[in-house]
Structure formats: C-alpha cells, structure tokens
Input
Amino acid sequence: MIDLATVVAGFGDVFAPTNLLFIACGVLLGQFVGAMPGIGPVITMAIAIPFTFVMQPLAAIGFLVGINKGGSVGGAIPAILINTPGTPDAAATALDGYPMTKQGKPLKALRMALYSSITGDTFSDIVLITVAVPLAAVALKMGPVEIFALMIFAFSVIAGLLGDSVTKGLIAVALGILLASVGADPEHASPRLIFGEFELFDGLPVASVAIGALAVSEIFRRVAETRTGGRPTVHFDPKQPAEDRRVSWAEYWSCRFALMRGALFGTAIGAIPGAGSTAAAFLSYASAKQAAENPESFGKGNIKGVAATESANSAVAGADFIPLLTLGLPGSASSALLIGAFIIQGIQPGPLLFEEQGRLIYGLFGAMILANMLNFGIGLFGLRLWARIITAPAALIYATAMILCLVGAYLAAGGMIGIHVMLGAALLGYAMRSLGYPVVVFIIAFFLGPRFELSLAQTLILTDGDPRAFVGHPVALALFVLTLLVIWWMGIEVPRRARRRAARNRTSSPS
Amino acid sequence: MVVIERLTTLGLLLAGLAVYRVAIPTQVEDIDYGTLNPRTIPQIAALAIVTLAAVQLLLPAARPVDAPSPRGLVRALAVFVTVTLAVLALPRVGFLPVSAGLALALCLFMGERRLPWLILSVAVIPPGLWLVVTRLLDRSLP
Output
C-alpha cells in the first residue's frame, strides 16, 4: 500500500524545474511532429529514447509521455487543414474536420479538436490513476505461471489485432523473441547467435532496433515515395467572422455526449493491448453519428464529428498505461517504446513498480496531468504556428529525421554497432511493412523477450516441467484456453466470415 | 501479389529452417544442466516461424499483401545504399561532412531543388545537431 507522503512527493516532483522543462519540451515536440504527416510521435519517441539516457527517470519518461500526448493533438492539424492525417488515428478527424476547413472554419475545427483531445486525455488519465493501484495489487497476486500464461495471451491478442492476419502477427512475435535471444543467455551467460561479434554480447541494442524497425524503415518508405520537395499551402482568412474562429462554451457543451462517448470508447479500447487509437476514433465517430439527431450532417462539417474522434483517440493515451504499468505489458508502439525507456533507466515496469518506485509512479501520473495542461496551453498558442509547419518541405523533414536516427542509434549503443544494428532492423522493418507483417508486434515481442524467457524458466521450475501441474493454476489454465479461443476467432472465424461476406457481395452486385 | 506472398512465405520458412538447423547448432552452446538450455528459446522461436510459415502457405491471409511497386522497391533500395555508404564513411570522415552530404543527397533524391531549404539541410541542421549532442549533452560523435 502506498502512503500519502509518497503520493504527495511524487506529484511534487513534477514541479521540479528540470522535469517541467522536459515535459513542456516533449509536448512541444509532440505537437510539432504530430502536425507533420509521415513523422508522428511514435517515430519521434523511438529517436528520442537514446537522448533520454542523460535525464533523470521522471524527466525522461515525462518527456516521452509529452511527445505522445502532444502528437495526438498535433495529428489533427493536417487532418483538418489539408485532409492528410498527421497520425493514423486522426484519419477519422478529417471526416468532418476537413469539410469545416472548406466551409471557411479551420480555426474552429482546430480549437474543437484541441478541446476534445484534452477532455478525452484527462478523462483517461483520471481513470488510470484511479484503477492502476488496485489493478497492480491484483496483478501482484499472480505468480510466474500466471504471468507466463498472460504473456502468451497478450501476444495472441496483439498479434490478432495489430496484424493483417493472426499468422503474420504470431510470426512477428516469434521473430521478436528470436532476436531478443541474441546475446548472453541469462542463466549460463553463454553467447547466443552473436556470430563472433562480441559487441553483441549484451544483446542487440534495444533503442537501435526500435529506431531502425519503426523509424528508419518508415523513412525509407517515405523517401522512396516522395518525388517532389514541396507541400500544400495553408491560408487563414483574416476577415473570418469571430464565431468561425473560436468555439463558444455553448458549442463545446453541445458536444458533451460525443465527448463523453469518445472518452469512454478511448479509455476502454486503450486498456486492451493492441486495440489502438485508430479503432477507438472510428468507433466513437460511428457511435456519435448513430446517436445524432441529424446523422446525414456527419461527414459535411459537423463539429460533433471532430469532438467524438479527437476525444476517443486521445483517451487511448492514458488508458494505454493501464496494462503497461500494472502488468508490464505494452499494448501499442508508444507503450512498447516506454518500456524500452524504463529498461534503459534501469527500471522494470510491472506491478512491483508501485511498491518499489511508488514516488516515480505518482510522479508519472502528475507528469501526465501536467502534460495535458501544457498540451492545452501550447496548443492554443501554437495552432497557427503548427499550421505553417505543415508547409515545410517533406525532403527537409525526412533528411533531418534520418540524421537524428543515426545520432540516436550511435548514442544508444555507444558506438557504430548501434548504427549497424539500426540498419539491419530498418531492412527487416521495411520488409515486414511491405509484406504485411506488423512491425509494432515485433517490437513488443522483442522488448518482452527476456521477460518471456524468465517467466518460462520460472514456470518450468514451479511445474517441474509437467503440464498436469497447470491444473493447480486455474487462472493460467483459463488464460491458455482464452488464447486458443482468440487464435481460433481471429485466425479462422473472422477470415471465414469476411470471405463469406465478400462472396455474398460479389453475387449480389450487378455485373 | 499472391505469388509474392507465397514466395516470401516460402523464403521465411526456409530461413526459419536454416536458423533451426544451422545457426542455432553452430552459434548456441548446448548446455543440458540448469532450468533452460540456452538453445530452448531460439529453437522455440525458429520452430514457430517454420510452422506458422507453413500454415500461411497452406492458408494464405484473406487480405493480399500490398507490396511496393518495382520502382518503389528500387528507390527504397537506393536510399538504403546511400545511407549504408554514409554509415561506412562515418568513422573515416566524421559526423559533420557525412551528415551534411547525406542530408543533401536525400533532399535531392526527393526532388527538393530550392536553395534555401538545401542550405538549411546542409549548413544548419547537421552543425546544430552536432552542437546539441557534443556541447549540451556532452556526448561524442564519430
């Protein structure tokens, strides 16, 4: 049980000038990269991780959380202004945001997106703070056998939800675990798969793999696709009426049901590993449209459409931390990268964190709330500036990002080995993206690989290698059964229904 | 695209087999005392890849793969080669000239011809980054 002094100290730590500065910088950077289609907060977090080596844990995690939260605000900007989402989850925002721009109300749409984002994010942060401690207490009662079964279940869910198919998702999991085994074996310290390269004795550098697979592979793809250096122009009409430039309290209040629905969707879906903010945004939009008095107005510049999507996709950010902090299981690329950051700081995320590092946890909660406030303030003043940023040439953005990746990979490993690993991971990531294998799943499995091996070893000790011993672990047994159900449902039943639907559509459509 | 899917899955299956039959036996010691043999996890992973690739060959994904066009692939390869050459030059030439050259090469590759942006990418960003890393963060670069 965490005492009040720890809670107060943790929240107080956030206001240390260094921590404040880094959280603010993270939010600023997040909004900046979120506003630029193609870069996004995930790539930026991957590149930023090595730079957080020199920071204290709370500053480092607060900085990365700031990038993540700022990114979800920034992603709406190009979606609304030029119909090009800055982040995938802002695709739903463009459905009504861009029509509002065409109606001459870009600033109204941007402000509503900002207010909705903050609303959803704050709601999910409050849920996280409320449920995390009791959930962690429940998770602590789980033994190594249950943890092992939970990891298998989480892998199957993530593989099914984040991949084109369950099979490809599971292959990505296996690849991640295989590459995580490179380096010294944890029990005997015997080198594995290092091919004589003793710089790999400590394993493949975590940050280099993340930067390569997530960031550099995407940069390769974008650079290969970009043929011209320019970007579209954005123009704000100075003669625009005041009511088209701002969101009144009455307008905000009229969207309250869409906002709450979005916040609930985002929080519920964010807590499920692998479900993702894009799904939350579209589900919330569909629900808001269905519940509206005039559903035909959706898609034509209805402010409630913007409210529903932005509230949902931002609410995912806070809820994403629930499985991460309570179970140590990331459910998305950003939370997987946060695990990497924790590991680099020498901290093992999971339920024990609440007992061993309670002050840091409450500092993190404080950082999340503060990041929301900063997101609001910086967003209000920065909207017009970010609108200009999206006109920066793509060539400059990607060239800069590539150099940052080289620097980050070099710093992460302390030498050229980091860059070499980054290049290898980039090739692998590019191949995976091109062939429909989920890179995020690979990264999650790679980060969790050592923990998976440890929990397997502990399970073997406790069960003496006898599968019948699982009868004494009903929770683990239930999780294994659920895993099989998930694989059957997502791997066999859902594709079969999709094929039947496709066949029905082919026979019923006119030739 | 179905052909590409099948060929790459076959390649994956063969790679998994190569890891299981060649890489692991030669690169991982076989220690039979203790809880887990060092080969256990790599073998499980390699076997999983082989099995799942076989399943995928027999039951391909409902959604066909959306592979890049040959032109896109060639361009991506060209980018990779450019970056690799830069990486090879890094320890010999140093960070500043290599990063400036790489930035310029990527900008030109993407069709950027406007002088102010090219100057920014060559003369401002690499030195700026160098200053941040070496002076602010007190870390060294090649």
Summary: Chain A has one domain: 4-225+241-503.
